[in-house]
Amino acid sequence: MRITGNIISGIILLIVGFVLLLTNFLGIKVNFFRLFPGTALLILGIVILFGQLGGRDELIFARKKIDLSEPFREKNIIFAEGMMDLNDLKYSGASEKIKLNVIFGSVRLILNPDIPSVVHASSVFGSASLPGQSVTPIGSAEYRTGDIQPGIPYLDIEANVIFGQLKVVKP
């Protein structure tokens, strides 16, 4: 096993968190303000050691490309940076809906010109940048790509940005 800076800093934070928690529990008084920093450092150490929190539909405290090979309905990007390339999406030809929530993070969404898509972007104290328009700090916008007609399937993308950034790019 290769020891990296993440492992060393995670171990240090774990030790400091355990020490703070032990001094709090072995003492007579229980003070929230002494308990909170120990718990926060313990959780931060575990996150640094094991990579990320959340399941396969969440991206938390990380920076990576979002995997579109597995089926999903909703992706949450929280305190993270992600990239979603719709060229990697296996589009079945039926209408599909993707919900993308960005909270204190940033996402770059690359559209596929072969898939007709509608992007509904809303922003609350964040920034949503669509081709030809942007939404800051509060508001919503819509962007369409491809030939979208009633009865023809398309990809419906709902993007919600809260204190974050979304950039939609057409190839």
Q: How is this structure best described in words?
A:
- This protein has 171 residues and is of the alpha/beta class.
- The mean pLDDT is 80.
- It is built from 2 helices and 12 strands, in the order H-H-E-E-E-E-E-E-E-E-E-E-E-E.
- Helix 1 runs antiparallel to helix 2.
- It is elongated, with a radius of gyration of 21 Å.
Key traits:
single chain; 171 residues; 6-stranded mixed beta sheet; 2 helices; 12 strands; 24% helix; 38% strand; elongated
Kindly name the structural category. alpha/beta
Computed CA radius of gyration, to the nearest angstrom? 21 Å
Q: Spatial order of the strands in the main sheet? A: 1-3-5-11-7-10
Helical residue percent band: 10-25%
SSE sequence, one letter per element: HHEEEEEEEEEEEE
Tell me, what's the shape? elongated
Could you tell me the strand content as a percent range? 35-45%
